[in-house]
Amino acid sequence: MSFSSLTSACSSLGVKSSSLIVQLGFHTAENNKFPGAFVSSPKRTKIKKFSIACSSTVMATTFLSLAFRGIINLRTLSPFIFYLDPLLVKAARGDPVSRPPAWMMRQAGRYMAVYRKLAEKHPSFRERSETTDLIVEISLQPWEAFRPDGVIIFSDILTPLPAFGVPFDIEEVRGPVIQSPIRSEDDLKALHPIDLEKLHFVGESLKILRQEVGGHAAVLGFVGAPWTIATYIVEGGTTRTYTTIKSMCHTAPNLLRTLLSHLTKAISEYIIYQVESGAHCIQIFDSWGGQLPPDMWEQWSKPYITEIVSVVRNKCPKTPLVLYINGNGGLLERMKGTGVDVIGLDWTVDMADARKRLGSDISVQGNVDPAYLFSPLSAVTKEIQRVVKCAGPCGHILNLGHGVLVGTPEEAVAHFFDVSKSLNYDGSSQNHLMEESKLLV
């Protein structure tokens, strides 16, 4: 059977686009033992660069149906591996799901003993975040421990800076340091188009992560939004006041617009690179967007995020995009206007209020207070149930309202994911118009 006839057969059943992915791989002893079996990718399976998209709702039983109708021969499918869209991707798109998928921002990091042990051997953060083997190992640490529904690449929003002309260092106490901040027209001359070859470790890591988790979880990539990246480049590192860049909005607006436009193009290309390397979903961190008054965010951040969304949509129309801003309570409606698929909520926003303000036509992510993980496990359970109930039965990705805090007990993180997997939406609550979900725990 030809590949074209296989996709035509899918179309004949009325299935929608792109969630069941058929990838050409190599036979294993297990595959030969059970010809035609639908199997997950074994560790480090070598997969050739061929795939076809077939369905967003139909399970592998569709192919059994095709076989019974004589359309395909299952034995001819034994060299293939079948992946359905991960639960997180479905929730991001607003498709019906049986429970809310869960992952945590900063879920790989210093709260884990295994990470601290690795960091002792490799004390440089940039070495850990720019070496393929280390990136993969660290990214998989929480996956191996807790089996979250999303595996995010271990990286940093500043990682791509040297690839377009902005070198930086990370010091133990000060954090990111940019020795040559951009504050004049002459400084802009250092910028150049992004060189993705200099970010090969990101692409290599995403490809390996995609193979490692198979279809069992979504592989997440991420970037910083132009405004947030610009704060580092203009201020020369981290800041509590943002006075230099905020004053530039008034004293050198053309300079700042040129910088933001350059960052927008570079970040757009970087997102597309991550998707083509294997990322199922991309989160855009406008971490410091919440430091702007809403009207200034509307002028200095939103247009550039909107442009990124438009460019990525054109190249990767089926990749969900998440937008997260720390301190976003006054920006929710404006964030929705960027066109992203998911709004990430911090813990200062009430989930029920956010749902009322955003409506049911966009997905949300969050928003348990990270400090809850220091509370008794029973309190964690109740807060997860409350957040999930307020979010409703469709279009919700369970997460913290910020990253995992240093010192968080690992047993609390494990409990968070155990509770998330115990939840089930009542079948009757899959109606998108229902205001509340009935939760079975």
Automatic annotation (TrEMBL):
Q: What InterPro entries would the database entry show?
A: UROD/MetE-like_sf (IPR038071), Uroporphyrinogen_deCO2ase_HemE (IPR006361), Uroporphyrinogen_deCOase (IPR000257)
Name the Enzyme Commission number(s) assigned to this protein: 4.1.1.37
Q: Where does it live in the cell?
A: Plastid, Chloroplast
Name one cellular component (GO) term: chloroplast
Q: What is the main EC category here? A: lyase
The record's principal subcellular location, in a coarse class, is plastid
Domain of life of the native organism: Eukaryota
Signal peptide per UniProt: none
Q: Which GO terms describe its biological process?
A: chlorophyll biosynthetic process; protoporphyrinogen IX biosynthetic process
Bilayer-crossing residues are 50-72
> What is the reaction catalyzed?
uroporphyrinogen III + 4 H(+) = coproporphyrinogen III + 4 CO2
- One Pfam family, please name it: URO-D
Q: In which pathway does it act?
A: Porphyrin-containing compound metabolism; protoporphyrin-IX biosynthesis; coproporphyrinogen-III from 5-aminolevulinate: step 4/4; Porphyrin-containing compound metabolism; chlorophyll biosynthesis
Q: What residues does the Uroporphyrinogen decarboxylase (URO-D) domain cover?
A: 101-110, 220-236
Q: Which GO terms describe its molecular function?
A: uroporphyrinogen decarboxylase activity
Q: Which NCBIfam families match?
A: hemE (TIGR01464)
Q: What does this protein do?
A: Catalyzes the decarboxylation of four acetate groups of uroporphyrinogen-III to yield coproporphyrinogen-III.
Question: What is the similarity comment for this entry?
Answer: Belongs to the uroporphyrinogen decarboxylase family.
The annotated subunit structure for this chain is: Homodimer.
Instruction: Please report the name of this protein according to its UniProt entry.
Output: Uroporphyrinogen decarboxylase
Q: Which organism is it from?
A: Gossypium australe
List the gene name. hemE
